[in-house]
Design brief:
This protein has one domain. The chain is globular and about 55 Å long. Helix 3 runs antiparallel to helix 4 and helix 4 packs antiparallel against helix 5. Helix content is 70%, strand content 0%. The chain is mainly α and 76 residues long.
Length: 76
């Protein structure tokens, strides 16, 4: 039985669609995610559940709001 070694894991991940594209506006969203996390999330998804969740997390603690904002921006 032959075993094939994945020599180019990043390119195969891109072909399979596992990695989202990094757009030109993502750095701006990340700056907003650090300064005002809900604004960065709003720029990414609009007024949907992740936006309201980020407002709640930011009110409960600024760091959880920032982490969630980066997650939403990099995931979508």
């Amino acid at each position: 039985m032959r075993r094939y070694v994945n020599v180019y894991p990043v390119s195969l991940a891109l072909v399979r669609g596992n990695i989202m594209a990094f757009t030109a506006t993502d750095p701006i969203k990340m700056i907003f995610a650090v300064l005002l996390p809900p604004v960065g999330v709003f720029m990414e998804v609009g007024i949907k559940f992740p936006f309201w969740l980020n407002i709640l997390l930011t009110v409960l603690g600024f760091i959880p709001g920032v982490i969630h904002a980066f997650y939403v921006i990099l995931k979508h």
